[in-house]
Amino acid sequence: MALAAMTASLCLGTGATAGAQGRKALTQDTYDTWRQIQGAVLSPDGRWAMYTLTPVVGDGDVVLRETGGTRERRLPRGWTGRPVTSVVVDSPFVAPQPQFTADSRYAVFLGYPPQAQYDQARRDKLPAARQPKAILSIVPLQGDSVASIPRVRSYRLPRESGRVVAYLLEPDEAPRDTAAPATAAGRPAQRKTYGSTLVIRDLATGNEARIADVTSYVVDDSGRYLAYAVASRTPQSDGVYLRHLATQQTATVMAGEGDYRQLAMDRAGTQLAFVSNRDEYREPRPRHVLYYATMRAPTPVVVAAPGAVDGLNPSDKAPVSFTRSGDALTFGVAAPPLDSIPADSLADKAVFDLWHWKDRRLQPQQRVEANRDRDRAWTTVYVPRTKRILRLANDTMPQAQLSDDGRVALVTTNVPYAVEAMWGEGGTDVYVVDVTSGTVTPVARRQEFNAQLSPGARYVTWYGDGRWSAYQVATGRTIDLTGAIRGVRFDDETWDSPSTPQPYGIAGWTRDDRSLLVYSRFDVWEVDPSGARPPRVVTDSVGVQEKLVFRLVDLDPDERWIDPAQPLLLRAFDDENKGSGFYRDRLGVTAAPQRIVFGDRSYGTPQRARKGGQYLLTQQTLREFPDLYTGASLDAVTRISDANPQQGEYRWPTVELVRWTSADGIPLKGLLYKPDDFDASRQYPMIVYYYETLSDGLHTYHAPTGRNVINPVVYTSLGYVVFFPDITYEIGFPGPSAMKSIVPGVKSIVARGFVNPKAIGLAGQSWGGYQTAYLITQTSMFAAAVPNAPVANMTSAYGGIRWGTGLARAFQYEKTQSRIGGSIWEYPMRYLENSPLFHLDRVTTPVFFMHNDADDAVPWYQGIELFVGLRRLGKEVYFISYNGDVHNPRKRANQKDIDLRMQQFFANKLQGAPAPDWMVRGIPFLEKGRDQLNRSPDVPR
After folding, report:
1. CATH T-level topology, domain 3-16+651-800+839-927
2. Helix, strand or coil for residue 682?
3. Is 191 helix (H, G, I), strand (E, B) or coil?
4. What is the pLDDT of residues 905-918, one digit of tens each?
C-alpha cells in the first residue's frame, strides 16, 4: 500500500476529534497544494503589484493587482520550480522575478510549460534542445490583452525606458554536427556554438526587428543602445554590433571569425567592452584580447593583449563590467589553462589523490572547488580616462573591491591563514591600493570579520578587538570609532560559541562618507569616521530601554547613501515579547523614534515604489499566511492577496510564548503549539523539537510541509502538543547544556497538567539530531526519539569531512556550533563525554532516525555508528538512509517518505497506533523498492 494512504490512519490520534468545528487534519495530499508568493514587486508608479502564486508542486500563476482598487488579472505561468522559501527539489530552476517597464505601462515575465510536460520530457530522456521551453508574456496594464512569445531564452528591459523589450529566442533546433575548422597546426578547433535569433520589440506598436545568430546582448539604462555578439555559420559575420534603438541603425564594432564574449556596457550607454579571440581563432589554443570602445567612436581599441598584464591573458570566463559611474572597467586575467587529460589515457595507469601536509586546501575541498579553480581569473582594472591598467588581485591577495571612481581598491587575503582556517583560526589581511600609483598599503592584519570600503572610498572600516575602526585613505590614519562608548557592545551580547562574537553590523553611510551608522544590540549609532565628532545614539537609547531591536530599512537598494535630510524608516522587534513593527526617526535630531505601527505579528521588509509613496509588504502570524499588503502609509495598509483560502478547512494551532529557568538558573523562552480544539482538562502526547533558539519565530507562519523536521501545524493537526524550547550553551559542554535547557522546559509544560508524561517524544535534525541522541543517553523521560542526521561520535566526526564543501570538520568543534572550545588533544574528555556513542548503554528510548548516504554536511558513518552501537546493546532502533540524497533530502519522494515514517513512528510510540510493517519486520535488501507499508488500524481516541 502506498505511503500516502497511511496518512488517514494517523489523523485520528488523541485530540483529533470532531470538536474542531468540523475542520480536517492536514495530510500529505494537502501539502503540495499549499501556495507561496514569490517575487512580489511594485510598478514604478506604485499603481500595480505583481507576484507569482505557485503551489509547492504544480503550476503557478502571475497575479497582477491594482493597489488602489480591486482589479486583478491572473495569467498562467506554468511550472516555476519549487518556491524559494522551500527546499528546492526535483526542479531545474527558480523562475526569475517578473518585471514592470520603467513607464509602468507593461508587465513582462517568463512563463513555462506545465510541470507535466517537464515530467514527461524527463521520463522520455529528451535532449536539451527538445525539452519544454519558456514563454515570454507581455501584458499591457490597461486592457485585457497579452502577447505570448514561445521558445524564449532570456529578455532585457531598459531600466529607465519603457519603449522596447529585447529577447533572445531558443535555437530552432540543436546545432548540426558540422566539421570544425582546422587550426593553423592542422588540428580541429574547438566546436563552435552558434547564436540564435534576437528580437527587438517596440512595446507600443508591436513592431519587431530580428537579428540572427546572437549569443549575448546588453541594453543601457536609458534604452538608447543595444550591443550584441554574433556567432554565425557565416564566419565573417561573427562579431560585436551596436544598434541605436531609436534610429534602428546598426554599426559594426568588430567583425571576423572568432568568439566574442563578456559583453559589457556602462549604465549611461557611452562605453562598451568585450573579449575576443578573433586574431588567434584558428590557433590550437587561441588567446583572448580585451577591447574597449565608446559610442561616439565605436571602433574598438586593444586594452589588454595576451601577456600584457604581468604575462597573463584576458579571461573569457571572468565578467567584464563597468563601475557604477562608468569611470573604470574591471576584467579578469589568467594563465593559460592546463591541457586536459583524456580519460582513456588513464585506463592502465594509477589514479589517486595525494594529500600533502603543506597543502592550503585538503583534496576534497580542491575537488569541490575544481571548476572555480579552472576558471579563476584575477581582477584587473582599466581606467579609460588615464588608460591606466593595474592587476589588483593575485594568488596571494585574491579578493579585490574597486571604488566607483576607479581610484582606490580594497584588497584582502586569507591565504596566509588558510591552513589554520581548517580548525577555525583563520583571518584576513587588509590592504588599500592606489590605482594611479600602484602603491599597496597594509591596513589591518588577521581580521576575523570582513573589511568594507566606504561608498566614497574615503575609508576602510572593520570590526575587531571589540570596536569599529576606520582607516582614512587620504592620511593613512586608523581611527577608533566606538572604543570610547562605555557600556555598549557592538558585537553579539548573547554569543555562546567559542569563536569571537560577531558584530551586529553596519546600517550604511551618509552622503560623502560623512557619517557611518552601526548597530548595537538594540539601537542605531552614528559615528564620524574621521573621529572629529563624538558618537551619538540615533534612536535615543529607546531600543535598549524598551528591549526593541531597531534596524534600518533600505527603501532604495540602488542608492549608495543615506540621505540625512530624509526620515529613516526603522524596523523594530520586541526581543522580550516577539512583536514587531516600524518606527520613523531622523539624523541630527535629539528625539525618540516615532512609532508608525506595531503589533503581535511579523512584518516583512517593505518596498516602496520608485515614483510615489506606495508601499508593499507582507505580514504574518502563525494563523495568517504572509499575504501582501499595500498602502501609502505603513499604518494604513490593505491586503491584496489571499494565497491560501483553503486554510479555513483545516485544523490550525495556537501558539504561546512560554518561559522557564534552566538547571543553571538562566531564564529561557520557548514556543508551545496547541491543537485547534485544545482542552486543558485532557492530556495530550507532546513532541519536543529544537535547534538552538527558535522563540523569535513566535509569529512565523508554518505552511504544512512534509519533510524531515517537525512542522508544528501538521503535528498539532494530528493531535499533539508541540514544544520548541530555546537552548543556551556553556562552552565545552554542548550536550549537558542542551539537557539543562530542554528538560526543565519539558517539566514546566508537564506540570501544567495537559501533557501525558509517558507520551513525550523528541526530534531534531543535524545539530538538533545530535542533541536528541545525547539527551536519550541522559534521561528516560522520553518515549520516542528521532535524531535525524546526527553526530554520534565527536572523536571520529572531528576528523571527518563536510563533503559538500570539502572542509575538515575540526573548526566546528574548536570554534563554532559544536562548542567544544579546543582540539581533541587539548580536551579529549570533552569529546568523549559529549559523544552519545559512549553512553548508549543508558538508552531506554526507542529510536528512529534518518541519515542519508550522500549527506553533504554530517558524514553518514555517524549514523552507522549510532545504529550499530544501539543494535549491539539490544536497543530498539530503526535507521533509514535515502540513497544518493543529502543532509536535508532534496528529492520530493524522499521528503514525503521520511515525513510519513516519522508520523508513523510517533503514532506508534506516543498514541498507541499499531506498528507498521517496516517497524515489525524491516525491509530486506532483496525487497528494496517494494512498498512494505500496510494500513494501520485507527488509533484509539
Report:
1. Rossmann fold (3.40.50)
2. coil
3. coil
4. 999 999 999 999 99
